[in-house]
What does this fold into?
Amino acid sequence: MHDEVLTPLRDKGYWEGAAAPYAWKMIDDIERQLENAAKVAEAARRVVEDGVADLKSAQKDLKDATRRAKEKGLHIKSDGTLATDVIGNVCKVELTDEEKATIEAADQEMAQILGRGVTADRNLAHSLMADLGLGQWFNSNPEFTDIDSTKKISESAYNALDLALQGKNPYPGLSSDDPYSLGWDWVTGDGPRHRDYYHGDEMTELIRSSQSMEQLRLDTLEQWRSTGQPQGSVAYSISESGKLGALKKLITTDLPAIVTATRGIWARRSPARTT
It folds into this structure.
C-alpha cells in the first residue's frame, strides 16, 4: 500500500489549486493509519501467540488431571465437575475420609487448572482489546505483546474494556443517583425499577465500600478458587429476616438517615436498595 499506492499517489498525482493541500493531508492520514494498523497487527499476533501457549498448557494439564481422576475411578459429570459420591467406578452412599480426600484433591487440582485457563482467556481478551483501542481509529501505541501485563491497565480503562467486550458503551454517562434519591424512589415506587451503575458513579463507590460487598467479594473469590468456573452465584440477602426485616431496616434506619442527613449510615445501607 505504501510503495505501490500512497507514494505514487502523493508524488505523481495531479494535485494543484486549493484541493492539493487537502489531498496531501488525506494521503498522510491514510499512511499514518496504515502504519498504526501494522503496529496493532504485530502486537496482536504476539499477544495471541502468548495466549495460545498458555491455553494449550492449561488444556494439556487438564487432560492429564482428567486421566488421573478416571484412573482412580472418579466420575466426571457432563458439566465438567466431579461427582462427589463416585470412586472406584462405584456410587457410594457413604465415603471414607480417605475417599473424600481423594475426590477433593482431584477436584481442587482440576479447579486450579480451569482457573488458569479462564485467567488466560480473560487476559487475552483484554490485552487484544487494549491493543486495538476503543477509539474510531487504530491505536497508535499498542502496549501489549503478551497476556501477562494486564496489571498495567488502569482501573477505569479496565472497566471501559470490559464494557466494550460485553458490547456496551465503554464510556457511559455518570448516573445522578445518590443514596437519598434512590431510597426515596424505592419507597415511593417512582423511577425505573432497573438501574445500572458504572465505574465512577457515586452509588458504585458506596456499594464497593460497603461491608455487604466486602463479604460478597470474599465469597466470590472463595467460589472462584474452589471451582475455577468463570461464572457462578453467591447467596446474598438485604436482611436475615427477609422482606419484613428489610422493611424494618428501612423504617428504623434508612428513612431516619434521610431525614437527619446521616450520610455515613446510607453509605453502609444503600447497596441493599440497588438489587
